[in-house]
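Title: Prediction job returns without error message
Component: structure pipeline
Severity: low
Priority: P3
Assignee: unassigned

Description:
Job completed but the reporter wants confirmation the result is attached to the right record. Sequence as submitted:
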Amino acid sequence: MGNEVNRRDFLKAAAVAAGPAVITARGANEKINIGWIGVGTRGDYGIRCLHDAAPNDVYLKAICDTCGPYIDRGIKNVQDTWGYKPETHKDYHELLADKSIDAVYIMTPEHLHHDMAIAALNAGKHVYLEKPIAHTIEEGWDIIKAWEKSGKICQLGTQNRSSMLYKTAKEWIDKGMIGEVHYARGFWYRNALANGNAAWRYDIPPFTARGVSVQAATPENTDWNRFLGPAPKRPWDPHRYFQWRLYWDYSGGISTDLLVHQTDIINFMCGKTLPKSVVASGGIYRWTKDDDRDAADTITAAYEYPGNFHINYSSYLGNARESFGEHIYGSEGTIVVENRWEAHFYPETYSGVPANVKARKEIHLYNDASPLVTSGKVKSDFKEVDGVLAHFRNFVNSVKGTEKPITPPPIGQEAAIGGHMATIAYKNKKMVLWDDAARKYKFA
């Protein structure tokens, strides 16, 4: 209990330190100059989301990527979305050297987060950093230290915390609608053909997406060494370059790509922080022919938390029937959030259930992305696709000084620690324990 209280006090202090931070270089009513580092799959999507989230508050001045074809696509994306051509860079240090840039979005492979985030904070930039915060637990602490020293706004990209579906689910739990909560389940399932845009194995150019052709990447039009960064040096390999999530050199696998979103949001809904232990198992079960990847496509992780709380997590890339979601099981009801589209409350019906629980009715909520909304079968309860637009707005407003970040680095680090512990448990086939006093993991 003491450790749990200490962590919460730390987070409260971090939230105070996180903001508000008014822009000093220009008036609060002037646009924030944005630099964008990483215009791959997530970055390309994020550019459009930022325009939808805060078109009148920001100016996307420059983009940066080590991939020439991605830069070409990024230019067209900004031109189509924002109406002008951005400056371009292959070296993020050049972008950070631009003193007119107030804030940066870092949307790169996770093994580059540490050096980029610290360089950006040291350059006096506010930072939006995609999850996970870093490639290792130790690197995450380094980023927190740099953030504390900088006095700048930093937001981690665990955007579910900005979703109205999850905020509402948290309110249901806080009100006691589902009674005592000791068990939760998170899951993420995908499926696709191995020779198509296979789940979690993103396409290698050339390809066409949203009507835009992306040319083949070659050693001549990419900066392979900059992509490798601190990772081990290897010869040019387009599979590692575009499918980096499949290799331990650049990724923590499913645990730091998908799992962290879900354990983080379960923590948020249920008022939890760090697990005390994790065990994990799984393996490479699909697409095994002529495949040199490291990361598993199938994983199950079991988390034990202080206060008699358990999370069961599973991910499999060979069946998409259940898609993804989180289930919170209480003594008086169940909350189901699915696909970031809808949230449901179901009262319990076990034998001898109290009369006040029996009298409760099911609740069903939907946002704009739900197929039931788009098909006209139900009305939208929340005008959002998922939490990303609200999360982007929160970052922009935090830079302007009118809000505080929803996920400052300490919360991002908590989310990442759970993911890293699962990866470590899987790779070592051992139970991993968290030592809160030492801020380190150890094996049971």
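Comment from assignee: result matches the submitted record. The first strand starts at residue 32 and ends at 37.
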